[in-house]
Design goal:
With 247 residues, this protein is α/β, with parallel strands linked by helices. It has a single domain, classed as TIM Barrel. The chain has eight helices and 14 strands. The strands form three sheets. The chain has a ten-stranded mixed beta sheet. Helix 3 runs parallel beside helix 5. It is globular, with a radius of gyration of 18 Å. The mean pLDDT is 94.
Length: 247
């Protein structure tokens, strides 16, 4: 549990959700329990090396042998923190699905959190794993997977169970929408969130290709109006890092 299969460790700007524009350290874990149609981080095989930026935001990477040790991660992150105190808002644990590595996170999070607040990006389908680590997490970015956009089977009950745990931390929910998203799926997602806590921010994120939204503007506005009839904080935020050409 002192090492884990990682894909990359880099410093960039958060491009999604209500923390868009903040500088973060990103720690990308390998592996996911889903296979969404719009996924842009497919890594079917554990890479032999994780690529890591020695200097934050440099765009220059050095290879670290997989699995990567906590000591190696801490050495890099400590250097980033000391280089510019206050630059990084938090450490984003992303993937893949970080919660697949629950046992590793149980061991790593208290140490990682000594450097930066922990920002968990998750597909919201592993509530038991979240419950094990939630006390060492500060922010949760949770996806609700709409079957029409993700290609996944309905996951409503798993998402509900996950929300009931995640509400203990600062939380927002992200829903990826496409041109074929049926209104009833958005309604179901909104009612699910409302039943747990209606003030949870909901982010509608249009599917993008080549840095351009594939969802017409008027359709996004209709989706937002529909969701706002149920929830109190509904925002439309695309993947801004894509058109900024950032990781």
């Amino acid at each position: 549990m002192n090492s884990a299969p990682l894909v990359e460790l880099f410093s960039s700007i958060q491009g999604e959700g209500p923390h868009v524009g903040r500088r973060q350290a990103f720690l990308r874990f390998h592996g996911c329990n889903l296979s969404c149609a719009y996924c842009d981080t497919v890594e079917p095989v554990i890479p032999t090396h994780c690529r890591a930026e020695p200097e934050p935001g440099s765009g220059f990477f050095k290879p670290l042998q997989n699995p990567v040790s906590l000591a190696a991660v801490m050495e890099l992150l400590t250097g980033w923190r000391d280089r510019c105190l206050g630059l990084h808002h938090s450490l984003s644990l992303t993937g893949g699905e970080p919660l697949l590595h629950r046992d590793t996170l149980l061991r790593w999070l208290p140490t990682l959190r000594s450097l930066f607040p922990i920002y968990l990006e998750t597909n919201g389908t592993l509530p038991e794993s979240l419950a094990a680590v939630v006390d060492d997490v500060d922010y949760i970015s949770m996806d609700i997977k709409l079957p029409s956009a993700s290609g996944s089977p309905p996951l409503w009950e798993l998402h509900r169970n996950f929300l009931e745990v995640a509400i203990r931390r600062e939380l927002f929910v992200k829903v990826v929408v496409g041109i074929d998203t049926p209104p009833e799926e958005i309604r179901t997602a909104c009612l699910l969130v409302r039943d747990v806590e209606p003030s949870i921010p909901l982010i509608l994120q249009p599917v993008t290709r080549n840095g351009v939204s594939t969802v017409p503007a008027q359709l996004l506005l209709r989706f937002q109006e529909q969701a706002a009839r149920i929830l109190t904080d509904v925002r439309v935020i695309p993947q801004t890092h894509v058109f900024l050409n950032l990781l």
